[in-house]
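step: validate -> pass
step: tokenize input -> pass
step: predict -> running
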Amino acid sequence: MTYTSASLDALRTQGDELADATVTALFERGEVGKFNTLMRYVSTVGQDLPEGLPDVAREYLHATGAPPDWVDWAEMEKARLFFIDNNVHISTALSFASMPACYVLPHVAKLLSATHSLKYPSKRMAETGQFTVYLMRPDAFEAGSRFIPAAQKVRLLHASIRHHLKREGLWDIAALGTPICQEDMIGGQMMFSIQVLDALHRLGIHMSNEGADAYYYAWRVVGAFLGVDQAHVPQTIQDARVFSDLYMTRHMGPSEEGALLTRQLIDLYEEVVPGTFFDPVVSALIRYLIGDTCADWLKVPRTPWDTLVKAAPAVLGVLESLEDRSPVVAWALDRLGYLTSVLELSSLTRGRVMHYAIPEHLKADYGVSTTVLPTARWTPPPATIGQR
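step: predict -> pass
step: emit ->
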């Protein structure tokens, strides 16, 4: 598949027709509150939909309640095993590479800061972590699964944000396209797939091409559930890299929102890490994984750990070699990774199940500013001479 600036510009005008129509109907009929109240108790596949659920919502849930017919279940099982083998590393990559990569896109940072509230940065990380765990469970698409209902609600949440931003005139559509447009949805898919795989590689994690392909495939399935137009989604990792590189270079650059989101992310994880001695590791790891230029745009502080963290691939490489050679070590490391991921997620969620609801008033719920976004696109400069 060939991607050009023109083809990506076309994707900036497109939203999610089904979800957008559902949300519009719920607002027009004054049924958003009823929907949120009833859907709070619908959290697993196989539950009967509650009495009184608006008809338009019931139709949406039936239409989006099954996996695409093209899903290769053998490939999904490979992806699950890849996740089990690398769960703690994937969590690290999501937190310290994928999220900062989102923040280095000024229009995305503006949207995230507006719709997730800077005061509660743990909310987005908790939702992302919980969503990924739901996806990678063996029963992700079976009765009792939490993944499909979560995906259905996230898709409506995105549509509600589009609805509010358009209706209230808070988004410069002429300059920036549709909020949470198809280009950005595919770009988000790249953040959680290609950017994660690149971060794992940079950390020195041993991966097979087969495992990486399967992990990317799983996020293609996620994209289908979230309303991404499959006609434009890269089918292979090679095509995905072309899309990701073009997407990033079209939009990346510094912004105050991106820097503030990053500061909140750093503060969040410094609170999770016991004590204060290792706090600088958070900043050092982000800088190592996203590079100096992006880290400087996001105002990631330099620390004495910047050099030490570069030894991480060597250390992890030794552990990976031991894991490759010994089933017992592999089991122990997988178990340790699982427990570490559970501890991290429980710290972010504070033991709660994260619920996804349609906000009835975006400004009141999320603190949206009416500031108009700049229209100029950033052209990334080369790294500053003398940077480490």
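step: describe -> The two ends are 37 Å apart (CA to CA).
step: cleanup -> pass
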